[in-house]
Amino acid sequence: MPSDIEIARAATLKPIAQVAEKLGIPDEALHNYGKHIAKLDHGFIGSLEGRPEGKLILVTAISPTPAGEGKTTTTVGLGDALNRIGQKTMICLREPSLGPCFGMKGGAAGGGKAQVVPMEQINLHFTGDFHAITSAHSLAAALIDNHVYWANELNIDVRRIFWRRVVDMNDRALRAITQSLGGVANGFPREDGFDITVASEVMAVFCLAKNLEDLEERLGRIVIAESRDRKLITLKDVKATGAMTVLLKDALQPNLVQTLEGNPALIHGGPFANIAHGCNSVIATRAGLRLADYTVTEAGFGADLGAEKFLDIKCRQAGISPSAVVIVATVRALKMHGGVNKKDLGSENIDALEKGFANLARHVTNVRNFGLPVVVAVNHFYADTDAEHARLKALCSEKLGVEAITCKHWADGGAGAEQLAHAVVRLAEGGAQPIAYAYETEAKLTDKIRAIATKLYGAADVQIESKAAQKLAAFEKEGYGNLPICMAKTQYSFSTDPALIGAPDGHVVAVRDVRLSAGAGFVVAICGEIMTMPGLPRVPAADTIRLDANGQIDGLF
């Protein structure tokens, strides 16, 4: 089979206006970025207010492994399949970050015959949204240091400036730096550092904002430092929000593209799924719901991170709720959770599959505990055996009472996921379901952390370091106690140890630090060693990405 980029390049794409026409989007609502990409105008988005909303379908997954699960591929395949069976469907995805594209993960536009296109543009600069977010964040950083340089009227304590700088690239050398060296004219030297752009609170705010006005208000609430008398300083205090909103004005318009089968997809925003909430923008999701009968979206990493944050943070803030949830699993990944080495995954191993099934079972149980109907999509790989798929379906039926469906959208496009589409339609007949959140907003912040750890992770308890506990108490004193919790932990395990795969229980979740994201509207609980600035692997993808003799990109995946 050709590579993803070869498949994408061989596709015949429709003019973006034809794609928009499927959902009744007029030409005047489009700001074109070439022939196959357009942004939806703010005015048009606003005109959708009051329209009835279609059904929201959330695609999540088991705990990720190096074997691959295919959550985005399944999201695209399901969207194509729903359109094939006559359901007017919009797909809503996050935008890829350049860091993973040139690092280890590669792009994030799906794969095989279930992709969003034009794949090269989407995975690289796209419409410049991430550059705008980087620039807005950088403007804030410059204004903070400029305020300190010119008399520091807010009495900012340079030892307690929380606002780091960002760049959309994996660069471990920038994690911790010393800035403002070289003399008096360059400011006051202090320690600083860089995060990757997708870890910026500006990104989280961008994806949770309802409109431009809400965006500016949320930016103003972001806490960036403390004064010498320990008062919180915000971006509004340093007069940054107006200019930042100007930089983000065009970026806040959702991006319309298409699948390989010519179906519409909105790709917009992309916060980190382990340091932030890991979902595409509220604006894009609400637009999809008002334009289509079905909107299929995904949440980052496994259901313990992505789905939990989608429900407890995004849905709670936006006032939306899924009608059904799809949990993506693969035979390969479950065998890895059962202890099989990656190099041995090509061999049939029913025993390992049964052992690894515990990971899927916990994710299914967790989603059901939110009160939502579930179906399992088993993403087919060529080395899978019929016996393995039959056993997995039997386990799902007998032990969980949930339907598991083999899907071949990677090889066959939407046609390979039609059975899944029919199952989703059946599950979604009841419409949006009330969510049984993991915790109440009125609960103490420590109790919210404990609820997530014990109810979803199988933990016996949490251990909050004294410094983190003091900060939580201070947040509550400042009036932030009603905010939801955003857990920052490894995506590879229910625990904080990435090597502890499967479905561990009885462990203790250690919280080493907490951060206030007042603009985004949540408190981040940092568990274990979580990097907000990733590094490149020994052999990064960038080593093999190049232009060929015809000027076409080669090596992007």
How would you explain this protein's 3D organization?
The chain has 557 residues and is α/β, with parallel strands linked by helices. It has 3 domains: 305 residues, P-loop containing nucleotide triphosphate hydrolases (Rossmann fold, 3-Layer(aba) Sandwich); 101 residues, Domain 2, N(10)-formyltetrahydrofolate synthetase (2-Layer Sandwich), CATH 3.30.1510.10; 82 residues, Formyltetrahydrofolate synthetase, domain 3. The protein has 19 helices and 25 strands. The strands form 6 sheets. Strands 1, 2, 3, 4, 5, 6, 14, 15, 16, 17, 18 and 19 form a 12-stranded mixed beta sheet that branches. It has a 4-stranded mixed beta sheet with strand order 20-22-23-21. Strands 7-12-13 form a 3-stranded antiparallel beta sheet, with no helix packed on it. β5 and β6 form a beta hairpin. The mean pLDDT is 95. This is Formate--tetrahydrofolate ligase. One of its GO terms (biological process) is tetrahydrofolate interconversion. Its EC number is 6.3.4.3. Pfam families: FTHFS (PF01268). Keywords: ATP-binding, Ligase, Nucleotide-binding, One-carbon metabolism.
List the helices and strands and how they pair.
Layout: H1 4-10, H2 16-21, E1 30-32, E2 38-40, H3 42-47, E3 55-61, H4 71-84, E4 89-93, H5 98-102, E5 110-111, E6 114-117, H6 119-123, H7 129-149, E7 156-161, E8 165-167, E9 177-179, E10 190-192, E11 194-196, H8 201-208, H9 212-221, E12 223-227, E13 232-234, H10 241-248, E14 255-259, E15 264-267, H11 282-291, E16 294-298, H12 303-318, E17 324-329, H13 331-337, H14 350-369, E18 374-379, H15 386-400, E19 404-407, H16 409-412, H17 418-427, H18 445-455, E20 461-464, H19 466-477, E21 485-488, E22 508-517, E23 522-527, E24 546-547, E25 553-554
Parallel strand pairs: 3-16, 3-17, 4-15, 4-16, 8-11, 17-18, 18-19, 20-22, 21-23
Antiparallel strand pairs: 1-2, 2-14, 5-6, 6-14, 7-12, 9-10, 12-13, 14-15, 22-23, 24-25
Helix pairs in contact: 4-17, 7-10, 9-10, 13-14, 14-15
